[in-house]
Design a protein that fits this description.
The chain is an all-alpha fold and 189 residues long. Helices cover 73% and strands 0% of the residues. The protein contains 10 helices and no strands. α8 runs antiparallel to α9.
C-alpha cells in the first residue's frame, strides 16, 4: 500500500503539472480540432449546454475509426453495464491489443479494472489516457476516486480542482469537492 501511495503521488504530480499529451491523437478517428473547440466551449458553458457538450466530447473520443474496434468498445461497455467485469476486461484488453493508439480503449478498460478493484492496472490505463488527452475529465475523475479510496484525499481534491478548470459543471463535482474540503478540515459553503 505504501508503494502504491508513492506511485500515486508521483503520477498525480506528473499529470497535474506536466499535463501535456505525449501521444497525441494518433491514428484513431477523433478530430483534434473539434475536441479543442468542444473543450473550450465546455469550460465556459452553462449547466444545460455543458451536458450536451460533454456528450459530444464522449462521442468524439469514442470514435476509433474501425467498425471492429467500435464493436469491441461497445461489447466491453455492455459487459460492464451487465456486471460482467471480467468479460469487459477481456473485450477491452483485446481492443487495447488491436488498437493501442485508441485512447478511449484505455479509459474504458481503466473503468473495468476499477470496478474489479484492480487499482494498479486502472492507474496504468489512466496514465495512458492522460498522457494522450490531459483534459479527459472522466479519467481524471477515476484518478480522484482511486486517490480518495487509497487515503490520499489532498491529491484527490487537487485532481477534482483540475476537473473544475476543464468541466466546471460536471455532474456531482461540486458535491465531491465540498465533501473532500470538509473532510480535510475546511468549511463547506
Amino acid at each position: 500500500m505504501k508503494r502504491l501511495r508513492q506511485f500515486l503521488k508521483c503520477a498525480v504530480a506528473f499529470w497535474l503539472f506536466f499535463g501535456v499529451g505525449i501521444g497525441g491523437a494518433g491514428a484513431f478517428a477523433a478530430d483534434a480540432a473539434k475536441l479543442d473547440t468542444l473543450f473550450g466551449e465546455l469550460s465556459q458553458a452553462d449547466p444545460y449546454d455543458a451536458s450536451r457538450i460533454e456528450q459530444e466530447i464522449a462521442l468524439e473520443l469514442s470514435r476509433s475509426g474501425s467498425d471492429a474496434m467500435d464493436l469491441l468498445l461497445e461489447r466491453g461497455r455492455l459487459a460492464m453495464e451487465a456486471g460482467d467485469v471480467q468479460g469487459a476486461i477481456g473485450h477491452l484488453t483485446a481492443l487495447v491489443d488491436h488498437a493501442p493508439e485508441f485512447t478511449e480503449a484505455y479509459n474504458a478498460r481503466a473503468t473495468a479494472y476499477f470496478m474489479a478493484g484492480l487499482y494498479g492496472p486502472a492507474l496504468q490505463d489512466i496514465g495512458e489516457v492522460l498522457s494522450r488527452e490531459p483534459r479527459h475529465f472522466g479519467a481524471l475523475s477515476g484518478l480522484s476516486l482511486i486517490l480518495e479510496e487509497t487515503g490520499d484525499e489532498p491529491q484527490a481534491l487537487a485532481v477534482l480542482h483540475k476537473i473544475e478548470e476543464i468541466h466546471p459543471n460536471m455532474e456531482g463535482l461540486s458535491d465531491r469537492i465540498a465533501r473532500l474540503e470538509l473532510a480535510l478540515g475546511g468549511v463547506a459553503l
